[in-house]
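Anyone? Bumping this.
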Amino acid sequence: MSDRGHLEGEHFMSGDDACAEGAISAGCRFFAGYPITPATEIAERMSDRLPEVDGTYIQMEDELGSMAAVVGASCGGVKAMTATSGPGFSLMMENIGLGIMLETPCVVVNVQRAGPSTGLPTMVAQGDMMQARWGSHGCYSIIAVSPDSPQEVYDLTIKAFNLAERFRLPVLVMTDAAVGHMYEKVVIPPLSEIELVPRRRPNVPPEEYWPYMPDDDLVPPMANTGEGYRFHATGLTHDEQGYPEMTAEAQDRLVRRLVEKVERYRDEIIEVEEDSIEGSEVVVCTYGITARVAMIAVERARQEGIRVGMLRLITIWPFPQDRISEIARQVKAFVVPEINYGQISLEVERSAAGRAGTILVPHMGGDVHNPETILEAIRQAVK
Amino acid sequence: MQNYTVFVPRLVPKKEPFAPGHRACIGCGEALAVRLACKAFPPNTIVANATGCMEVISSQYPMTAWRVPWIHVLFENTAAIASGIEAALKAMARKGLRPDDGTKVVAMGGDGGTSDIGLQALSGALERGHDLLYICFDNEAYMNTGIQRSSATPFGASTTTSPSGIKSIGQKTWKKNMAAIAAAHDIPYVATASHSYPHDLMAKVAKGIAVPGPAYIHILSVCPTGWRSAPDLSIRLGRLAVETGVFPLYEIEDGEYKMSLELPKLRPVEDYLNLQGRFRHLSEDTIKEIQERVVAEYERIKEKTG
């Protein structure tokens, strides 16, 4: 990997730019994309930067093509990424499912804007959180992270590549228009200090290689297509050799593994940030840009003498249900502000399982919350 | 308006289905092209409009520019939505649920919405033979999101995703030939047009709407913002594109090619390229390459008319 392209140092940059730099630091050398507000800047920066590191930028004819090209590039052995927003994310869904089925490591960035449909192209929302989990058809597990600052966009983009390689699946970076267009200080550490997970390579000779024979941790080693190993991949339900097997038994074996390879390692994947949870009577649970708005409400509530904790979800999927279940035993209620009409709040409610209340503070998008609405919900929670 | 002697304002319909007061940039060729196209619409016309500059600048509440029924759709589905409208109108008339009043359907999109993401839907509409006119307003990049290259961006042009520099001359591919693609569907009418030739443009739109079955018109629309050209040069640039042979004006009626304009001699492409910042980095060699290609393409089309 060339050092020339790694911009070590302190920068003042947007979340979108930080995303592109995170990808380049992580060794991403392929970007296929399509212009869409507010994610276009990622494509623009990649088109500028990738040639400097011998990478490839391709502008595709649409988002179906973008996601498919990323799956193809990953099969070819290159770390690959695409970035989009609402309508484009919808178009990518079919090929995200293909990435799940072929078990191709890659990263998909969704700089969320308000929907449905064209919605508010330039304005913030968090309305795609459930689409990230369930958007492609069929049964599978997914990994999604949600950054709250340009610095965290940089860090989590690297993490997303590592998770993608570790578990062999598309990993989603669910940022939003506010974080994507926000300019802040971003520190890019020396390349030697960045931990990178390499692709798990076959440990048998080519003639003995089965492309979907998993290791003990359910993840199969991955050969690049065209380098001498038998590479037989299909979106059909397949056996360990990659050959289609149209039976309920094969479906059970494959889909169970696709889900379990993520769910078994939940603790390794999940990252949350906690503030004063111990001894609190109410916990604000939120993510992304809304976490920063909610901090204002939390500080004001504390000034009013309310014992309020903060749980910021950095990993959204798999959902940190065990930690929330634990917290639910000690608090009266969770306050869940999010820029949608209730998505992650449903997961919080499910995890709390009646042991604590869940108060949704919805916002339809186009703006962040007024902290006052979150503060009012906190007051209600302790009543 | 260099050498422009045929403009007769009283021959232009006074009606303005596309009203003034919209938010297009100064010197926007596309807004002018849309305005002229709309003047050629018959009284009952429904417009389906893909996402792009035109939707953004013309429809913001409370200042919509549209005096015809107008539906803004997603990026990729203009031709499919228009197909649905056309099929519904037919079915309603057949069942006697609405009068067969000759209501026409026009689908419009930019070059991205037509030659990239909307190509599949367009091909489907042309193949099924819907009675509609599809107009591509081609400003040669994704201008709405900030000048990203499309497959209609000309060779050598610098955009934000085909930036010129040490490693690149800008756009590395030649412009996709949409008129030829449309014509390959064996539809009754295909044409190219320019806002700098208003009577020609309006006549072609009227013809495209009048023919039974699908019609396709490709209109080059000068974009000062994306082309890095002076806003007061938009009309001249439209004419230079034609006079240099970069964008020949022609019709394909039932497979028969016909030049719309007899050019005794093509002007050198520099006359066109030099007025635009997006080509400012081009070397003499590259300009020569473009010149050769333009002449060859022009001759190829001319041969078909013979």
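Late reply, but here is one note on the structure posted above: Chain B has one domain: 2-304.
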